[in-house]
Q: What sequence folds into this?
C-alpha cells in the first residue's frame, strides 16, 4: 500500500535515479512531517469544538498536572508549556478573561505572582482532557497492543536521538528534586 511519501520518492527516483539509494531519510522524515501536520490540524479542530486554542489546552493541562493547588509561576509555566516568554502575559490575560486561570500573589515572594487554575478552568480541563484522550485514540489506527508498544519504543528512540530526555521538573513545572 503506497502513500504520498512513496509517490514523492518515486518521482525523485524517476527524476534523479542517481539519488535513489540516498532517498531513505525521506521515508521517515517525510512521514513524520506529514503526520505532524495531520495530527496538528485534527487536534486544533478538536480544541476549537470545545472553545479552546491549542495553546490554551497546553496551559490548562500543564497547570492541572502540576498538582494542587494547580498553579505555577509564569516562568515555570513558560518552561513546562513550551511557550515563548513574549506570549505568556498576553495568553494569561486572555485565559483570565475566559475565567480559566487567575493570577495570585506568591505567598513566599510578594513581588511574584503565580498562575492558578480557577474552578471553571479545572472543570474545563477535566472534561476536555477525557474527551481529548478518546479523540487521540480515535485518530490512531486499529493496531494490536504489541504494535503500539513497538511504535512507541521506536518513536521514543527517535526523540532521544534529538536529545528529548525526561526532565520531571520541566514536565511538571516543579523543581526536579520535588518532582
A:
Amino acid at each position: 500500500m503506497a502513500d504520498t511519501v512513496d509517490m514523492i520518492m518515486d518521482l525523485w527516483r524517476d527524476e534523479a535515479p542517481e539519488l535513489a539509494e540516498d532517498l531513505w531519510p525521506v521515508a521517515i522524515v517525510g512521514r513524520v512531517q506529514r503526520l505532524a501536520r495531520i495530527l496538528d490540524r485534527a487536534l486544533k479542530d478538536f480544541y476549537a469544538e470545545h472553545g479552546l486554542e491549542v495553546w490554551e489546552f497546553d496551559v490548562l493541562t500543564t497547570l492541572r498536572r502540576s498538582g494542587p493547588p494547580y498553579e505555577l509561576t509564569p516562568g515555570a509555566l513558560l518552561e513546562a508549556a513550551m511557550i515563548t516568554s513574549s506570549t505568556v502575559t498576553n495568553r494569561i490575560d486572555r485565559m483570565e478573561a475566559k475565567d480559566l486561570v487567575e493570577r495570585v500573589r506568591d505567598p513566599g515572594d510578594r513581588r511574584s505572582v503565580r498562575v492558578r487554575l480557577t474552578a471553571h478552568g479545572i472543570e474545563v480541563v477535566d472534561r476536555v482532557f477525557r474527551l481529548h484522550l478518546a479523540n487521540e485514540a480515535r485518530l490512531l489506527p486499529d493496531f494490536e497492543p504489541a504494535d503500539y508498544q513497538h511504535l512507541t519504543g521506536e518513536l521514543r528512540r527517535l526523540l532521544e536521538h534529538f536529545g528529548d530526555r525526561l526532565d520531571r521538573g520541566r514536565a511538571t513545572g516543579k523543581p526536579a528534586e520535588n518532582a
Summary: The CA atoms of residues 61 and 125 lie 6 Å apart.
